[in-house]
Design brief:
The strands form 5 sheets. Strands 3, 4, 6, 7 and 8 form a 5-stranded mixed sheet that branches. The mean pLDDT is 91. 43% of the residues lie in helices and 15% in strands. It is of the alpha+beta class and 465 residues long. Helix 9 (241-251) crosses helix 11 (294-302). It is built from 16 helices and 16 strands. The radius of gyration is 24 Å and the shape is globular. This is Reverse transcriptase domain-containing protein. Pfam families: RVT_1. It comes from Zophobas morio. Residues 128-398 form the Reverse transcriptase domain.
Length: 465
C-alpha cells in the first residue's frame, strides 16, 4: 500500500507512572510495561477472595497438580487434536507476510519459505503440544507495541493501546487448536444465542440488526425501549485464570483440552517495544492473550453463563454488553433494566469482572411526542448513570428515535476524509487501470460507507429530519 495511505505515527514523549518519568525509549518501555503488568494483576486490587472464589481457586490448583489419567476423556480425543503437515502448510500460506515479528524476530516471510523438513518438525511439535497438554514457554512470550489514543494525555501510560504481537509459530499452533475448539463449540452448543462475538455466521451487523428490529417493532406497538450499555474495565486483560479454567470444565470440554488451555493462559510474559528498545519481561497474571485467535474465543467462553432476566433481552459481542426492555412506560422499561443490572453486577463481582460506571450508558428509544420522564435513574455500584440522547454500539450510532442521522453523517465524514488520501491513485492521470482502482475502492472506501448498511439503509429522507 502506498505510503500516503499509512497512518502517521505519533511520537511518544515522556511518560509518568507511580512517580517515575521515562525520557528515553528504554525508560518509557519499562514504565509502560509496569503499567500493563499492573493492569493484568487482579491481586494488585487488594480485594480478598470471597469463600466461593477461594473454593474455585483451590479446586483449580488441585486440578493443575493432578496428573491426567491416560484414559481421560473419550478415545477419539487424540485423533481430534492431531494435525497434519498439510493443515500446517495451509495455515502458513495465509500468514500475512508484512506483519511485525514476535520476540523471536522470525518474520512470517521466513516461515513461508521454510523447507519441508522444517514443516515436518513443526508438525511433530504441535502434535506433542496436544499430547502433553503443555503450551511451550517460547510460545507464551508477547511483545506489546503501545499506540497512542487520539486526543488523550500521552504522559499517562493508560492512554496507549497495546498492539500485542505473538511469535508466528505460536499463532500457527493457536490456529490448529482454534479449529478443534470451533467444532467442539458447535457440538456442545453452550454459547447463548445473545453472544454474537467470534462465532460462525454471526457478526456485528447482525447483532445491531437484532436489537434495532426489536426496537422498531415495539415502536409500532407504541412501546418505548430502555437500554443500558455496560462497559467492562479492561475486559480482555483482566480475565481470572482460575475462573476461566473452572468454566471450561463446567462447559464440558475434554479435561485434557482444558489442561492444554490452562497451560496456554498461564505463565505468559510481556515485553514492551518502543522503537528499537525492548523492555525486560513482566509476568502476565490475568487476561486472555490478545493478538491471538484463541483469546477472543476464550473470553466469550468466560461470559457464557451471564444471567438473563425474563423482562429484558441481552446483547453481547465479546465484551460489548447491552441489556434492554420494552414497555408502554419508559419508567417501567428502565426499572426492568435496573433489575437485570442488579443481577449482572453480582455476576461480574463473583467472577472478578469490574464494571466501569463512568462509561456505562443509558438511553430511552421512543417516537412518542409526549414527555417520557424518567424518575428513577439507572445506577451501578450506587453511582447514577446519565441518560443519553444517542449511544454507539458496535460502531453504529443509535439515536433515541432511531433515525440514524448522526450515524449517516459520521459515515459520510469518515468517507470524505479518506477520499483525498486516495486521490493520487484514483484520479484520471494516476496511471492505474480501472481494475486496480475498483480494488482500492472495494478494499478501502466501500467498507466505510456500507458498514452495517442493512441496519440503516431503509431510512427515508423524512425519517432523518
Amino acid at each position: 500500500m502506498p505510503r500516503l495511505l499509512k497512518k502517521k505515527t505519533t511520537p511518544i514523549g515522556h511518560v509518568t507512572y507511580k512517580g517515575r518519568t521515562g525520557l528515553t525509549n528504554k525508560e518509557k518501555a519499562e514504565i509502560i510495561a509496569d503499567f500493563y503488568a499492573d493492569v493484568c494483576d487482579l491481586d494488585a486490587d487488594n480485594v480478598a477472595l470471597t469463600p466461593t472464589q477461594e473454593r474455585i481457586s483451590n479446586n483449580i490448583s488441585a486440578f493443575r497438580l493432578d496428573k491426567p489419567d491416560k484414559n481421560d476423556d473419550d478415545k477419539d480425543y487424540q485423533r481430534r487434536m492431531q494435525t497434519s503437515p498439510k493443515e500446517i502448510w495451509s495455515i502458513i500460506k495465509k500468514l500475512p507476510s508484512k506483519k511485525a515479528p514476535g520476540v523471536d524476530e522470525i518474520h512470517n516471510a521466513v516461515i513461508k519459505n521454510l523447507p519441508q523438513k522444517a514443516i515436518l518438525q513443526l508438525y511433530y511439535i504441535i502434535n506433542a503440544i496436544s499430547t502433553t497438554n503443555h503450551w511451550p514457554t517460547a510460545f507464551k512470550k508477547v511483545v506489546a507495541i503501545p499506540i497512542p489514543k487520539n486526543g488523550k494525555n500521552l504522559v499517562d501510560p493508560g492512554n496507549f493501546r497495546p498492539i500485542s504481537i505473538l511469535t508466528g509459530f505460536s499463532k500457527i499452533a493457536g490456529k490448529v487448536v482454534h479449529a478443534r475448539l470451533a467444532v467442539l463449540e458447535e457440538e456442545i452448543n453452550f454459547l447463548p444465542d445473545f453472544q454474537f462475538g467470534f462465532r460462525a455466521k454471526h457478526d456485528t451487523t447482525l447483532q445491531v440488526a437484532r436489537i434495532t428490529d426489536g426496537i422498531t417493532d415495539n415502536f409500532s406497538k407504541d412501546k418505548n425501549t430502555a437500554m443500558a450499555l455496560l462497559d467492562i474495565r479492561k475486559a480482555f486483560d483482566r480475565v481470572w485464570f482460575e475462573g476461566l479454567t473452572f468454566k471450561l470444565l463446567k462447559i464440558g470440554l475434554p479435561s485434557r483440552l482444558v489442561r492444554l488451555l490452562d497451560s496456554y493462559m498461564t505463565g505468559r510474559t510481556l515485553q514492551v517495544r518502543i522503537g528499537t528498545e525492548l523492555s525486560t519481561e513482566r509476568s502476565v497474571k490475568a487476561g486472555v492473550p490478545q493478538g491471538s485467535v484463541l483469546g477472543p474465543k476464550l473470553f466469550a467462553y468466560y461470559l457464557y453463563d451471564m444471567p438473563t432476566f425474563s423482562k429484558t433481552r441481552l446483547a453481547l459481542y465479546a465484551d460489548d454488553t447491552a441489556t434492554y426492555a420494552h414497555s408502554f412506560s419508559a419508567e417501567v422499561a428502565n426499572r426492568q433494566v435496573q433489575l437485570h443490572m442488579y443481577q449482572l453486577v453480582r455476576y461480574f463481582g463473583d467472577w472478578r469482572v469490574e464494571l466501569n460506571s463512568e462509561k456505562t450508558e443509558n438511553i430511552i428509544f421512543t417516537r412518542k411526542y409526549t414527555e417520557n420522564k424518567i424518575i428513577t435513574k439507572l445506577r451501578v455500584h450506587d453511582k447514577p448513570i446519565t441518560e443519553k440522547s444517542q449511544v454507539k454500539y458496535l460502531g453504529v450510532v443509535l439515536d433515541k428515535k432511531l433515525n440514524y442521522k448522526t450515524n449517516i453523517d459520521k459515515t459520510l465524514t469518515s468517507a470524505n476524509a479518506t477520499l483525498p488520501q486516495l486521490y493520487a491513485m484514483m484520479n484520471k492521470k494516476s496511471g492505474l487501470d480501472m481494475t486496480n482502482k475498483l480494488t482500492i475502492y472495494k478494499t478501502i472506501l466501500r467498507p466505510i460507507v456500507t458498514y452495517a448498511a442493512p441496519v440503516w439503509c431503509g431510512i427515508s429522507d423524512t425519517q432523518m429530519t
